[in-house]
Fold this protein.
Amino acid sequence: MNYIATFHTHLSALRSCAALKSRGISGRLAPVPRRISSSCGTCVFYEGEDMALEAMDRDLEAIWRAEEGEYSCLYQSEE
């Protein structure tokens, strides 16, 4: 499944991308699609069997499923 993780800070996006890679999950930093967030402006696109919440930094904003240009929110942080 394709996921997009959005964050409150750019540093959290960097840390999460590195944590995903250390777990063998391919991820890449990219600008956030404006339709889903404008928070820090940086997101992580990644693929996996699950959302890999354990790899996400504490400033995670949300995790979205991305399918054929459509986005659906799967997880929203409480902060």
Q: What stands out?
A: The mean pLDDT is 93. Strands lie at 2-7, 27-31, 42-47, 60-67, 70-76. Residues 2-76 form one domain.
